[in-house]
Amino acid sequence: MGIKISGIGSYVPEKILTNFDLEKIVDTSDEWIRTRTGIEQRRVAADDQATSDLAYEAARKALEMAKLDASELDAIIVASISVDHIFPSTACILQQKIGAVKAFCFDLEAACSGLIYSTEVATSLLRANDKYNKILVLGAEKLTSEVNWEDRNTCVLFGDGAAAMILEKDASNECCILASDLGADGSYKDILQIPAGGSRLPASEKTIAEKQHYIQMEGRDVFKLAVNAMVNSCKKVMAETGITADQIKWLVPHQANYRILKAVAQRLRIPEDKVYMNVNRFGNTSAASIGLCLDEIARGNYANKGDYVLLTAFGGGLTWGSILLKW
Ligand code: UT7
User: Fold this and answer.
1) Does 129 qualify as catalytic in the annotation?
2) pLDDT confidence of residue 172
3) Do domains 2-170 and 177-326 have the same CATH topology?
4) Which of 53, 151, 158, 268 lies 20 to 30 Å from 63, alpha-carbon distance?
5) Could you tell me which residues are beta bridge partners of residue 78?
C-alpha cells in the first residue's frame, strides 16, 4: 500500500531577529554567524504564541491543500522539543483547536529528527491498520523559549516555526514514501540536551539560577556525528531502493548549519545546487525544519511528479533518520 503526502503547510512567526540584532545581545558578529552557520536571520514567536499556536497555522494550511476537514483525521502526531506543557500533549491541544474530533493524539520527541520519526510512525500505522486512513504529522517548535540568551554558542542558532503534513493511503501505489531509515545512540545523550525540568532534575531555585532549563550543546562533537549519521542513513535508503545520487532532485537535510549540509551532500556526491537550504532565513527550527523546506518546494513547484526527494535529519538523543520520497 502506497502512502502519499496529500497536504503540506507551514508557518513562521512574523518577528524577524537578524544577526545584527544579536550583536546587541551577546558577544557575536554577523560575520561569525554567517560564515560558521549560514544563518542570517530567524523568526521569533510572540510571547503569547505557544508551539500549538504555530502548529495550528501550519495544520490549517495542510488541511486546505489536502481538501480535508479536520474531523476526517484519524490521528495527530506532533514532533517537538518545545511542547506547550509536559502534559497534556501539544497534539491534544491542537486537536481541540482544529476540531479533529475523532483523532487520537500524541507527541513524539526525537529532537531535530522528529518529523522523520513521526512520518515513519504514521506511515506504519496507515500500512498496518484498515481503520486508519488520514494522519496529520507536525514538526513544531518555539525554540526561542528554550535558549539561553546569554550563551552565544547556542542562542544564535535557533528559530521558531511549524510544519504540517497529511499522510494518506494511496491506492495507486505510485508514491510517495518509498523507504526510510531511523536510528539512535543514547550514549551521546549529554552532548545536546536541556538538563533540567524533567524527573532527573526537577525545577528548583538552583536549576533556574544555573540556567539548566535551556538548550546546551557541544557544537563541534555534534557537527562531526551529524555528518556521519546523515550520510550513512541516506546511503541505506538509497541502497534499499536502488536510487542513485544522480537521480535525486532534492536533498532536504535538517537545516542545522550550511556547512553540515554541504558536507553531507559532498559525501553523497550530490551537487550543492540540489541541496534545499533555507537555514539562512529561519535558522535551526529543529523538528520543523525539513517541513519548512518541503512546503516551499511544494508551493514553489520546485519538484515535478515522479522526482526523487531525499530527506535526512539528525538531532539530540542522539537520533537520526532518512526518508526517500517520490514526489
Ligand atoms: O540541530 C541539532 C544538531 N545541531 C547541530 O547540528 C549543530 C552542530 N554544530 C555546529 O553547527 C557548529 O559546531 C557551531 C555553529 C555550533 C559552532 O561552529 P564551530 O565552527 O564548530 O565553532 P566552535 O564551537 O569550534 O567555536 C569556535 C570559536 C570558539 O572560540 P575559541 O574557543 O576558539 O576562542 C567559540 O567560543 O567560536 C566561538 N564562538 C562564537 N564567536 C562568536 C562560539 N559561538 C560564537 C558566536 N559568536 N555566536
Assistant:
1) no
2) 80
3) yes
4) 158
5) 107, 138
CB of 148 within 6 A of ligand 1: the answer is no
**In this predicted model, what pLDDT tens digit does every residue of 88-112 receive, in sequence order?**
999 999 999 999 999 999 999 999 9
Q: Report whether pLDDT(27) > 90.
A: yes
Supply 61's cell numbers. Answer: 494550511
For residue 303, is pLDDT > 90?
yes
The reply to whether ligand 1 has any atom less than 6 angstroms from the CB of 152 is: yes
Domain 2-170 -> CATH class: alpha beta
Listed by start position, the domains of the chain span: 2-170, 177-326
**Ligand 1 atom 5: the closest Cα is on which residue?**
256
Q: Encode burial over 11-29: b for 16+ CB neighbours within 10 A, e otherwise.
A: bbbeeebebeebbeeeebe
Residue 34's contacts (CB-CB under 8 Å, 6 or more residues apart) are 19, 40
CATH architecture, domain defined by 177-326: 3-Layer(aba) Sandwich (3.40)
Compute CA distances 20 → 30, 42, 156, 280, whole Å.
6, 11, 11, 14
Q: Give the ligand 1 atom nearest the CA of 152.
A: 48
Indicate left, alpha or beta for 157 from its phi (over 0: left) and psi (-120 to 50: alpha): alpha
- Judge if the beta carbon of residue 315 lies within 6 A of ligand 1: yes
| 213 a catalytic residue | no
> Considering the chain, what percentage of its residues have pLDDT values greater than 70?
100
